[in-house]
Amino acid sequence: METRKSAPASTPADNKEERKAKVIEVLNKARAMELFAISQYMNQHYSLDAMDYGAMAANMKLIAIDEMRHAEMFAERVKELGGEPVAGSSDKIQNGQDVQTIFTFDANLEDDTVDIYNQFLLVCRDNGDSISVKLFEQVIAEEQTHFNHFDNVAGHIKTLGNVYLSKIAGTSSSTGGFSKGFVLSQSAA
Ligand SMILES: [Fe+2]
Ligand SMILES: [Fe+2]
């Protein structure tokens, strides 16, 4: 007769710590993605400003500020769970993109981010962390707003080309003094 080996019993505390570690891991992966987005968007903000597309540069700066808020939200949750926020992202920033490339690139980046964060949300749900689930829900909704903006602009450049771009050229890149970012300034408008 075959004897079945039983799986080693783990204490509830171990399970809890394991579940927490899985949540911290996805929060940190999300934070690394935010840090990449911040650097990439700041870089594009300066490029667009240099190309004299002021209004585009201003919105890019506001979106970078949204990503900073996201990075902080993920870091704060990592801290609450007793983990350490990661230092940075290994992804390489793209330099010198032209205006069409910028908005197509960013729309794709946001689209991928929504998809990946939805996977991370499921990890949080499977490991019983409803607060992190809510955090991902909120951030995913904001990434969707970013996607819609980037996709709209990319579409305008594609269909209208220079007619559209000439309306942006020479506009102000000012975002005023202190700024709440893109999503919050849209909802206040
Ligand atoms: Fe973000
Ligand atoms: Fe975003």
Descriptive labels:
189 residues; 74% helix; Ferritin; elongated; binds fe (ii) ion; mainly alpha
Task: Give a short synopsis of this structure.
This protein is mainly alpha-helical and 189 residues long. The chain has helices spanning 12-50, 54-80, 99-126, 130-160, 162-168, 182-188. Bound molecules: fe (ii) ion (2 copies).
How would you portray this structure in words?
The structure is a single chain. The protein is mainly α and 189 residues long. The chain has one domain: Up-down Bundle (Ferritin), CATH 1.20.1260. It has 6 helices and no strands. It has helices spanning 12-50, 54-80, 99-126, 130-160, 162-168, 182-188. α1 (12-50) runs antiparallel to α3 and α2 (54-80) runs antiparallel to α4. The model is unreliable at 9-13 (pLDDT under 50). One fe (ii) ion is lined by residues 37, 67, 110, 143, 146. Residues 34, 37, 67, 70, 139, 143 line the site of one fe (ii) ion.
